Amino acid sequence: MWNKTAVALTAAMMVAGAQAAELASEKDVKFEVNVDVGAYYVSQRNAAGKEISELKGKGLNQVEIKASRMIDADISIFGEIEVDYDPVVDNSAFTSDDTRVGIDSKSMGKLSIGQFDSYMEDNVMEVLGFYHGENPVMTEPSASNDGRHVQYAKKLGDLTFAVDYTSAPGPAATNSENSNGYALSATYKLGDLTLGAGYGELAKYTTGGTAGTLNTDKISMGLAATYAMGNLSLKGLYAQIEGVNKVKTSYTGVGLTYVMGAVDFGLAMQTVSPDNGGQRRDEWAVGVGYTPFKGMQVYLDFAGLSKANGEGDGAELGIKYTF
């Protein structure tokens, strides 16, 4: 019985190997696999002010598979899947993250469908996000849902613009209506200066199916700038989020990153101000990374959020390797 199973498994592996070799030999096909592995020790305060310290791997570990095929000189089709896992926690579940399929045309633009961040989130709202690890981090302004996502992006010289659409049904048990969200955003590169802007209306629900939950944010807008001077980059962000309760919260921040050989450094500060007389917070984050070998990095990040009981304040020490 065991011999038959072994023979069948060996044959299957040989067939898979032959298929992989055939795929790699096609000149119009690109196939790429990237793996991130790592672990970190984080110490962070919870809402009650208690400091929680633990060894984790969540968010830092992933396997990414990408493939594309050229149809002709103008059009190519592509697919991508990213799987996240935590090798530190016992029996951690594998979960999907960025997953997309689409068509890319040099003349017409790029159409993507799947689960991924919006162009506005990646290029405007995350401009201050230099972080090496997962926690602690400053508060990021909302941009859009990730799932049930359709994106059209087009590059015109130094200008790139994108339209993102997301769909999010409410809880199936209540037979709730479907909700839709969208974002319009663009970046413009002017020499060493890159400008970004975006406006979005978020879907009523944040997740779909039986777990559909109401989104607390309704309208999102932001302006971002990055100025590169050699190994030094200066960054700025202004964003405003309007909640479903009509309260508008502004985010005003600056940051910088600097690379010196094997060492990189990041610093960011922002002010979070609600317009209803709520608590104004001055947040900050600082981090340093060291790359002793290609693909490997050791890092230390700190952050303070000025929340009640010190919630979210903490430090993270970690190591990660990419291959």
What would you say this structure looks like, in words?
The chain is mostly beta strands and 323 residues long. Helices cover 10% and strands 56% of the residues. The protein has 2 helices and 17 strands. It has a 16-stranded antiparallel β-barrel. Strand 15 and strand 16 form a beta hairpin. The radius of gyration is 22 Å and the shape is globular.
Overall number of strands: 17
Number of separate helices: 2
User: How are the strands ordered across the major sheet?
Assistant: 1-3-4-5-6-7-8-9-10-11-12-13-14-15-16-17
Q: Cα distance, first to last residue?
A: 38 Å
User: Which structural class matches the secondary elements?
Assistant: mainly beta
Radius of gyration: 22 Å
Topology order in helix (H) and strand (E) letters: HEEEEEEHEEEEEEEEEEE
Share of residues in helices: under 10%
What global shape is seen? Answer: globular
Mean pLDDT equals 89
| Strand coverage percent | over 45%
Identify low-pLDDT runs: 1-23
Summarize the main sheet: 16 strands, antiparallel, barrel
Features:
323 residues, disordered N terminus, mainly beta, 16-stranded antiparallel barrel, 2 helices
Give me the secondary-structure topology.
Blueprint: H1 2-25, E1 29-45, E2 51-56, E3 62-70, E4 75-84, E5 95-105, E6 109-115, H2 119-125, E7 149-156, E8 159-169, E9 178-190, E10 193-201, E11 217-229, E12 232-243, E13 248-260, E14 263-274, E15 281-293, E16 296-304, E17 314-322
Antiparallel strand pairs: 1-2, 1-3, 1-17, 3-4, 4-5, 5-6, 6-7, 7-8, 8-9, 9-10, 10-11, 11-12, 12-13, 13-14, 14-15, 15-16, 16-17
